[in-house]
Design goal:
mainly alpha; 77% helix; globular
Length: 257
Amino acid sequence: MFALNGNPTSGPASLSLGLKLILHPELRLFILVPMIINVVLFFVVTAWLLSEFGLLMDGMMSYLPGWLSFLGSILWLFAAFLVIFVYGYSFSIITNLIAAPFNGILAEKIEEKLTGIAPPAEPLQQMIPRTLLRELLKLWYFISRGFLVLLLMFALAFIPLVNLLAPVIGVLWGAWCMSIQYVDYASDNHKTPFKSLRQQLGSQTLGSYSFGGLVMLGNMVPVLNIFVMPIAVAGATVFWLKDIQGKPLDPSRLLKP
């Protein structure tokens, strides 16, 4: 997961082309449903989080002795950063779990637009349960491995100087998860085993980190995170085709109506 290979500019370039692709008239229909899901979840999750964050900070500050009141601002900033990080990570996981079948179809249509060849056809009644099970498999991977990463970060936090690596590890893990989450749609359309997908991304880690890092950053920004999912699906499909599968793509041809 931490080997350095691939092209670090692949992630930004793929997302840039993905943004152009989702504006294509033939693809707008497949973006509508995931966007509606994102809008509804955005208002529900954000409203709940703002309410709970206020209660959490009030509770924490009540336990802080008066002579340590100067730490209040530092504690608030630290808690805010942690909540925003968890918010961006959780928002992406929840929306993708619900919108998985629609994202799979969007990735399929984008691949057909990019290459002129659609992935193998699959009946909708088979695709929906299969993609949902795939999302649960990814979710288990994120939770089980993420728990180990959290333990490592916790252990490093008690070692002077070395503890500076803890947030770096957290960011790398989040970026890795975002790459897996979105690149998997194009990969799964070809029935690629989940382990094989991780190995493929491991062969392009710099591109995977840059792609996932930008997606994670976008998910941390309220309102912007509503639009991140379709752009990320399109960009991940570009990344999978061009950088992992090695297929040549010509944007001047692909973006024509």
